[in-house]
Structure formats: structure tokens, C-alpha cells
Write a structure and sequence with these properties.
- Residues 5-73 form the HTH gntR-type domain.
- GO terms for molecular function: DNA binding; DNA-binding transcription factor activity.
- There is one protein chain.
- By secondary structure, the chain is an alpha+beta fold.
- It folds into 2 domains: 8-70, Winged helix-like DNA-binding domain superfamily/Winged helix DNA-binding domain (Arc Repressor Mutant, subunit A, Orthogonal Bundle); 84-220, Chorismate lyase, CATH 3.40.1410.
- The chain is built from 8 helices and 8 strands; from the N terminus they run αααββαβαββααβαββ.
- It has helices at residues 8-20, 33-40, 44-56, 84-91, 115-118, 152-157, 160-166, 185-191; strands spanning 60-63, 67-70, 96-107, 121-131, 134-144, 173-182, 197-206, 212-220.
- It is globular and about 60 Å long.
- The relative contact order is 0.12.
Length: 233
């Protein structure tokens, strides 16, 4: 019996579940695009997008002319979803709360530093992370204008990368820059601190064509908790 037709994000989730349940073991080849087309009753491009999502998440590797190989069945592939820091905090038993502060539509002029990435329209999402109910991080996400206020409910529940993927913006890689930033009055109020200096991280996310599809500016009050990175060897 064939499965009901679904969106490529949902197809990716179903294939990922099959990988995690060892239906498609690590080291084996996934069924062909034609097989998946028939199974899910969708177009070839939908299947390709689903496979791209799985490759981005570190579950499969696609090689031209050789098919798609399963390379991981882990529930979370570190450094593949961009939320490993959240996982680290939660593993330490810290209560992590995420809040949407505001979502804005921006009109950019040609002199704006983001104009080269997004043109004259962009969406700014401001979020807060709290640890044990104490304000810890301010996130300012700058996204393509296509990502709108109407997506607030999704943004509150899903990762930013998933939101981008649902709008056909697939993150292939990102670059991080770290520096020290001086807080303004509004930022001090959000973080509920008199601290003047915090850690600043600017993350620039690219698609496979090396085009910028998201810029996030994050301010961490490291007096609350240090910034941590886990590397898997």
C-alpha cells in the first residue's frame, strides 16, 4: 500500500525515522529516487529536496552516479542542525526557555550591509533564551523577506533552520565570528543586567550555491553561563 502524498520536509522525517529504526542501515544505499517517487506518490524534485535535507542533517551522503549512502543513524548529528549548544545546556540539566520578542519586516536601502544578501526586503526575528528563567542570550535573525510574521507559531516551536528549509532555503554551511560587544540600554533591559560587555557571535549561513540565506547576531551574557562547543572525533 502506498503512503499518502506529503511535503518534502515530512518525507525527510519519515526516511530519517526509517534510518534510525535500521530499516535503512548505516553503510547501505537508500532506495532510488524512482522508488521513493512511487512510494510517496510525489515528484522527483520533491524527493531530491527531501534527500538534500537529510544530507544537510548528516544522515546521508549523495554522490553523482552512485546513489545515496546512509552515513549516520544518530538521533542528533552534532554540528549539523545548528542547535548543539541548546542540546549541551539541556544535557547539563539546565532549564532552557525560548521566547519570541518581536518579528519585523525591514525595508533595506542599497547602502545597508544586508542589501547584498536579501535585496530591499528582509525579516528580522528577535528571540531570547533564558536559563532557569534568567535571560541569557539575545538572538537577532535576519532572514529573506519571504519569511513573514505569519510564521510566528512555527518560529516559536521549530528551529530557524527548519523554518528556512520549509521556505526552500537549505543551509549547506555556516561561518561564525566571535567578538566582544558593548550592550546598549535596550539590550541591558532585555538581559536584565548591568553588565556592559558581552560575547557577540555573528553567524552567516549559506546555501549550496554559497549564497547567504541567513545572518544572525547573538549576544551572550557569559556571566550566566559560558559558551560551549562539543566536537565529535
Amino acid at each position: 500500500m502506498k503512503r499518502k502524498s506529503v511535503l518534502y520536509i515530512d518525507i525527510a522525517e519519515q526516511i530519517k525515522n526509517d534510518i534510525q529504526n535500521n530499516i535503512y542501515p548505516v553503510g547501505t544505499m537508500l532506495p532510488t529516487e524512482n522508488d521513493f517517487e512511487n512510494l510517496f506518490e510525489v515528484s522527483k524534485i520533491t524527493i531530491r529536496k527531501a534527500i538534500e535535507v537529510l544530507a544537510l542533517q548528516g544522515y546521508v551522503e549523495k554522490k553523482s552516479g552512485k546513489g545515496t549512502t546512509v552515513i549516520s543513524n544518530r538521533l542528533f548529528n552534532k554540528l549539523s542542525k545548528g542547535d548543539s549548544f541548546s542540546s549541551i545546556l539541556e544535557k547539563k540539566g539546565l532549564s532552557l526557555e525560548k521566547r519570541i520578542v518581536k518579528i519585523e519586516k525591514l525595508t533595506l536601502d542599497s547602502e545597508h550591509k544586508l542589501f547584498a544578501f536579501f535585496g530591499n526586503r528582509a525579516t528580522k526575528v528577535t528571540r531570547m533564551y533564558l536559563i532557569n528563567q534568567v535571560p541569557y542570550i539575545i538572538f537577532n535573525h535576519y532572514l529573506p523577506g519571504k519569511v513573514t510574521k505569519a510564521m510566528k507559531d512555527k518560529i516559536e516551536k521549530a528551529s530557524m533552520y527548519r523554518i528556512l528549509a520549509e521556505n526552500d532555503y537549505l543551509v549547506d554551511h555556516f561561518e561564525d565570528q566571535f567578538s566582544v560587544s558593548i550592550l546598549g540600554a535596550e539590550e541591558k533591559e532585555l538581559l536584565e543586567t548591568e553588565t556592559s560587555h558581552v560575547m557577540k557571535r555573528v553567524r552567516t549561513s549559506y546555501n549550496e550555491d554559497n549564497q547567504v540565506i541567513e545572518v544572525s547576531v547573538s549576544l551572550y551574557n557569559t556571566e550566566i553561563h559560558p559558551y560551549e562547543i562539543e566536537f565529535e572525533i
